[in-house]
Amino acid sequence: MKKGELIAEFAKRTEMSGAAANSAVNTIIDIITERLKKGDTVGITGFGTFSVAKRAARKGRNPSTGEAIKIAASKSPKFSAGATLKAAVNPKKK
To answer: Which UniProt keywords apply (predicted)?
Structure first.
């Protein structure tokens, strides 16, 4: 599912206009992004947790030349699925 499909489904389920649904989805994404930029964690009960993972600086190799290079430290967004989401994706078989 792409973002446009998500917005269309959101509009259908909430009986909102497409423009209002687009605004709502974009606002949620903006809020999560802003909080992650600040280093906060965003938890949605039953769904999961968005957080920032820190990667230390390290040495690497240029694949085309084999030359050693320094890879700078960086931050990466991370998502951990909650128990309810995991259970929905992996239903127990009877």
So the answer is: DNA condensation, DNA-binding
- The bridge status of strand 68-71 relative to strand 74-81 is unpaired
Per-residue pLDDT of 42-73, as tens digits, reads 999 999 999 999 999 999 999 999 999 999 99
The C-alpha atoms of residue 11 and residue 5 are separated, in whole angstroms, by 10
Residue found by looking up tokens 């960086």 in the block: 74
DSSP letter assigned to residue 60:
E
Classify burial at 21, counting beta carbons within 10 Å of its beta carbon; exposed 0-12, middle 13-18, buried 19 or more.
buried
CA distance 10 to 1: 12
pTM: 0.80
Alpha carbon distances (Å) from 53 to 10, 28, 86, 87: 30, 21, 21, 25
Q: Which is the CATH superfamily of the domain at 40-93?
A: IHF-like DNA-binding proteins (4.10.520.10)
